[in-house]
Design a protein that fits this description.
By secondary structure, the protein is an all-alpha fold. The protein contains 22 helices and no strands.
């Protein structure tokens, strides 16, 4: 997964480091934006019809139904393209791109020829790139047109992808690559537009986001289930039938978006707190007559009802518990606020951005390369096609399962450890995975996959968490979107890695894995060293500031030396 694994309904309520709001604007007016376009410091005026709605305005039963519906349709659509390793054997059995093989390769009876392997992997590469690059337009569309339009767009993209894939065998052009791309683009539109549902129950926002994230990770199992059915039916339930049946999913998403989901996003914690403050501050002059008194009494009862409902949502009128929790996590981070208040250009040109982007580029390439080539890698390492199939099957099951199991632990690690510790853990685990990926043993293969499926969601979540803490929410959409976009574009290099694997190294994955391992280790170590030094400097600066601001306490009776 790429985009916003860790986004909460609680936007930061404290002034940014090195900058303060102007005028009477409260920092509560700021909220996390998904748009990649830099916004101004002042809150953006919105049209009345596009204003966010308070969760207390919607019946509880409807909000519960909205959350359940979002989890269900994300389970079947959000990240299905990442189940590529499961559907690839089906495509091979159906002779997809087999026409690209040379006569010699066909006579030799190779399972997959070079050009076939390259084109199949290119299908996944293009989809992975599209998923990440889509972060830029999706953010802008979500912020301007709302979650309903975003979800409807996603349903149409999923429909186009399913139709292209279903009829790819009859089309006069290659329908597999664009079909898989449209499936990849539809997922983020549906998934990201569901994040705002965490505000339906602010006290349980973490649980709702965990359910949505778990649904995303589990969606890769859709192709696994299909492959099992395909093999059970001896290929009679071939891809055309499956993808025509899959059209039910985008149709249901469209219906749910129109008749159940909100047109506008739900208000965040900060916005709800502001509603309470504005309601409490509304005062009235002396009553003029009996009619006016009656109207004001009705309005007062309505205000008290609103405050009561919001308090029930938040747990308190001020949202103080949430604020204290965020302040605690910020203090533990050690680098929170490092680039807050800086311009987008200053942030992008800083080592904070350059190093995390380089690390993300390498790691995302490694992750997607492994997903696309797991079977041929282990076929060479273990010198057995049957063992490679077993490893591939284990991976197909472990990938969605690992994403679900890692969710609670990821939150605990990110909320209770420093950013330096998190980055060090990423580099250490990535290095271990790289080493295991070079060992020709069964136990190493299974250990590698177990670590990989746990590491993948941890890595993506940690990068977004780093971006929010270091660069701030005000520019989050721009900075994080650019990181993921650049990393996604660099994934086109995977075709070059495929060429090295099959042509230069004769199918031996060890040299390619060592190149990726060493690159990630060098960049990762540099990133950890930089963050460690900066965290130490920031800690010293805070201590010095606290010492300077501390006032000398004078003992009673010592104000005037003449009295002694």
């Amino acid at each position: 997964m790429s985009l916003l694994q860790r986004v909460t309904s609680f936007e930061h309520l404290s002034p940014e480091r090195g900058r303060s709001p102007t005028g009477s604007q409260s920092p509560r007016d700021r909220k996390l934006s998904f748009s990649p376009l830099p916004g101004s410091w002042a809150p953006v005026e919105v049209q009345q019809g596009d204003q966010a709605i308070g969760a207390f305005e919607v019946p509880k039963s409807k909000r519960i139904l909205q959350v359940i519906a979002a989890v269900v349709y994300c389970l079947f659509s959000a990240g299905i393209v990442f189940g590529y390793a499961a559907i690839k054997p089906v495509l091979v059995d159906e002779n997809v791109y087999r026409n690209l093989c040379t006569k010699k390769e066909l006579e030799e009876g190779v399972r997959t020829c070079y050009d076939q392997e390259i084109h199949l992997n290119l299908m996944f590469t293009v989809a992975a790139v599209g998923t990440n690059v889509a972060a830029l337009p999706i953010g802008a569309i979500l912020d301007t047109l709302g979650p309903r339009i975003c979800g409807i767009i996603g349903s149409f993209l999923l429909s186009i992808g399913a139709l292209l894939f279903a009829f790819a065998w009859q089309l006069p052009f290659d329908g597999f690559i664009p079909g898989y791309l449209f499936l990849a683009l539809g997922g983020p539109f549906v998934f990201i537009s569901s994040f705002q549902l965490s505000n339906t129950f602010p006290k349980h926002s973490g649980l709702i986001l965990a359910l949505l994230t778990g649904a995303f990770d589990s969606s890769s199992a859709v192709f696994l289930v299909y492959r099992i059915i395909y093999q059970w039916t001896n290929g009679s339930f071939w891809p055309k039938k499956f993808f025509l049946l899959y059209l039910v999913v985008p149709v249901l998403i469209l219906i749910v978006q129109i008749f159940l989901m909100p047109k506008s996003s739900y208000k965040t914690v900060g916005e709800l707190v502001r509603v309470v403050e504005e309601t409490d501050s509304n005062g009235y002059d002396d009553q003029i007559d009996e009619h006016t008194a009656l109207i004001r009494a009705e309005r007062r009862q309505h205000r008290q009802s609103v405050v009561s409902e919001i308090t029930d949502l938040l747990g308190s009128k001020s949202g103080g518990k949430q604020i204290k929790q965020e302040e605690r996590k910020n203090a533990i981070s050690g680098v929170w606020g490092a680039m807050h208040g800086k311009t987008v250009a200053e942030q992008i040109l800083s080592p904070w951005f350059v190093l995390i982007t380089l690390f993300t580029v390498i790691q995302m390439t490694r992750i997607n390369f492994f997903v696309a080539t797991i079977r041929p890698q282990y076929e060479h390492l273990l010198s057995s096609y049957d063992k490679a199939v077993e490893i591939n099957t284990f991976f197909d099951v472990a990938l969605p399962l690992g994403g679900i199991l890692s969710i609670p632990f990821i939150g605990l690690v990110l909320d209770n450890t420093s950013t330096l510790f998190v980055l060090s853990a990423l580099v250490t685990i990535a290095t271990t995975i790289g080493v295991l990926g070079c060992l020709p043993y069964d136990w190493a293969a299974y250990a590698n996959i177990c670590l990989f499926v746990l590491y993948r969601p941890f890595y993506y979540t940690a990068v977004s968490d780093y971006s929010a803490k270091v660069f701030g929410f005000r520019t989050f959409g721009t900075v994080y979107g650019l990181i993921i976009c650049l990393a996604g574009l660099f994934n086109f290099s995977q075709s070059g890695l495929d060429a090295l694997l099959h042509k230069v190294f004769g199918g031996n994955p060890v040299p390619v894995n060592l190149i990726l391992l060493s690159s990630a280790l060098v960049v990762g170590a540099s990133l950890c060293a930089f963050v460690g030094v900066k965290a130490y400097q920031m800690k010293r600066e805070r201590l010095e500031d606290e010492a300077e601001d501390a006032r000398e306490v004078v003992m009673p009776g010592a104000e005037c030396p003449d009295r002694l």
